[in-house]
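Input sequence (125 aa), recorded before submission:
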Amino acid sequence: MSIAPCLIRRIDNPDTLEDPMCRNIRTLYNFEPPATQDEIRASALQFVRKLSGFNTPSKANEAAFEHAVAQVTDAARTLIDSLTTVVPPKNREVERAKAAASSAKRFGGRDGHAVGKGPPDSQPR
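Predicted structure, token format:
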């Protein structure tokens, strides 16, 4: 399983997608199957982006940025490998379905309207 980048359309040029700073760093511990090195690195990259304020660092800061991502990746892997629990691992697909249901309830259904509500013109005034 890989993590897709967070892509958004630019307001000034809708044909352009860009990878903004991600706002969510997801839990990686105690899942079946376990987190991959790519998932841990993606989480480290999100963390370093958030701390630095850079989505993409300048050439002058690129080496420091990449070094920080590598260090955070190593620290995260060490932490995940060191943790213990008696709780059985969570199933990724079940947790993904729960998150999707929660999001739909909070932000609206597939039609883009809040759950339980129709289009704005159908609302009583």
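Checked by second reader. The longest helix spans residues 59-82.
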